[in-house]
Amino acid sequence: MEISSSPRLVLLVQMVMLSVVTVASIHSLASDESALLALKAYINPETQYILANNWTRATSVCNWIGVTCGGRPSRIIALNLSSMGLHGTIPPHIGNLSSLALLSLRNNSFYGSLPNEVSCLHSLKTMDFGFNNLTGEFPPWLWSLSELENLVLQGNDFLGTVPSSLSNITSLRRIDLSYNQLWGSISSSIFNVSSLQVIDLSFNRISGTLPADLANYLPELKELYLSGNQFYGQIPISLFYCRELQVLSLSSNDFTGTIPSDLGNSTMLNKLFLSRNRLDGLIPSSIGNCISLKEINFSENNLTDIETKWTKGKFRLGVDL
Ligand SMILES: *[C@@H]1O[C@H](CO)[C@@H](O)[C@H](O)[C@H]1NC(C)=O
Ligand SMILES: *[C@@H]1O[C@H](CO)[C@@H](O)[C@H](O)[C@H]1NC(C)=O
Ligand SMILES: *[C@@H]1O[C@H](CO)[C@@H](O)[C@H](O)[C@H]1NC(C)=O
Ligand SMILES: *[C@@H]1O[C@H](CO)[C@@H](O)[C@H](O)[C@H]1NC(C)=O
Ligand SMILES: *[C@@H]1O[C@H](CO)[C@@H](O)[C@H](O)[C@H]1NC(C)=O
Ligand SMILES: *[C@@H]1O[C@H](CO)[C@@H](O)[C@H](O)[C@H]1NC(C)=O
Ligand SMILES: *[C@@H]1O[C@H](CO)[C@@H](O)[C@H](O)[C@H]1NC(C)=O
Ligand SMILES: *[C@@H]1O[C@H](CO)[C@@H](O)[C@H](O)[C@H]1NC(C)=O
Ligand SMILES: *[C@@H]1O[C@H](CO)[C@@H](O)[C@H](O)[C@H]1NC(C)=O
Ligand SMILES: *[C@@H]1O[C@H](CO)[C@@H](O)[C@H](O)[C@H]1NC(C)=O
């Protein structure tokens, strides 16, 4: 065929092959080392502390503090720089650490936005940027990290609406977006990830009602934290379909109506925080079935009475009836 002899096509094929080879070999322990040296260069020299003389080419990158290597050929699989007092921005080079399974920069002063290149970290299982000063729109590409199990962005300044769907991260077990500046409302599709066990969206500016079918997709839900937002409407009965539910924290919102008596079906529940809402009516007697309850707080509502012989003394009280 005449087309196959076209020099252009041959060139194109060569270019494609070249780029495949390049992609396959671009990432190595050497490129991991360059990525960390780039990260170091983006950290304010006055706050490099232990990194200053430890992260140097004098020793193998696998011996650097905070670094764990693994696999064959050896690559960086974990980077944990938590609580090191580091002040800086995160360079795009971090996206070259393509074998990373754990990345924690928790409790430092990283600022600016997350570079899009973080979306290249396809092996990440744990991402913890908690308690830094990161800002920008909530990064939508996070959902391409399909292996992610733990996502912690707590205590930053992420802005914008709550993501509309998490359903691409089918292995996600824990998501903590608390203490940011997220707003908007939540749809049930956000929770359409049946592996989720812990959801923390507390202390943002999220409003709207909780979807009635909220919990239908969450057979494994153990902890739900939504305190300190602007949710209103009723507490959905479906929450108590979650048989594993251990913590329910809905304090400091605008929930109204009564506490569903289905509450008593959650026999694993051990913490129940409903203070500072506008709930009224009776505390259902079925609460007596919640045999694991250890801490409750119903204060600052309009709950008028207690239905039966449920004894206050059994619980750590925040009760103000
Ligand atoms: C860097 O820190 C690690 C962990 O504390 C230590 O094992 C290593 O010897 C240090 N390397 C240098 C060059 O100081
Ligand atoms: C990171 O390191 C800190 C301090 O060494 C440790 O307390 C923490 O558990 C580590 N985090 C992870 C996810 O391994
Ligand atoms: C955060 O890091 C600082 C060091 O920069 C440390 O003193 C403090 O204890 C850490 N806080 C937590 C909660 O780990
Ligand atoms: C690493 O990342 C940077 C920035 O994204 C890029 O310029 C560089 O070519 C990448 N590759 C290597 C091998 O460092
Ligand atoms: C950075 O974040 C910490 C909490 O993670 C906060 O206490 C501090 O005020 C923030 N600093 C700036 C400059 O925003
Ligand atoms: C989810 O995955 C599908 C197929 O892999 C992809 O087309 C879509 O863009 C992804 N959505 C997000 C939000 O990443
Ligand atoms: C939930 O996700 C599944 C696939 O994971 C999809 O088929 C279904 O339409 C989604 N439902 C909602 C309400 O988003
Ligand atoms: C709670 O249990 C009662 C009695 O078995 C049942 O009628 C009700 O549908 C259950 N509610 C939920 C939310 O599971
Ligand atoms: C409690 O009910 C009274 C009378 O209906 C109302 O005035 C008051 O605002 C309510 N308080 C709360 C915290 O909802
Ligand atoms: C109960 O909640 C109220 C209002 O949020 C708070 O002031 C009080 O300290 C809490 N009580 C306990 C025992 O935690």
TrEMBL record:
Its main location: other. It is a single-pass type I membrane protein. InterPro entries: Leu-rich_rpt, LRR_dom_sf, LRR_N_plant-typ, PGIP. Keywords: Glycoprotein, Leucine-rich repeat, Membrane, Repeat, Signal, Transmembrane, Transmembrane helix. Residues 30-69 form the Leucine-rich repeat-containing N-terminal plant-type domain. The keyword Transmembrane applies. Pfam families: LRR_1, LRR_8, LRRNT_2. One of its GO terms (cellular component) is membrane. It is found in: Cell envelope; Membrane. The keyword Repressor does not apply. The chain crosses the membrane at residues 9-30. Belongs to the RLP family. Belongs to the polygalacturonase-inhibiting protein family. This is Leucine-rich repeat-containing N-terminal plant-type domain-containing protein. The lineage of its organism: Eukaryota, Viridiplantae, Streptophyta, Embryophyta, Tracheophyta.
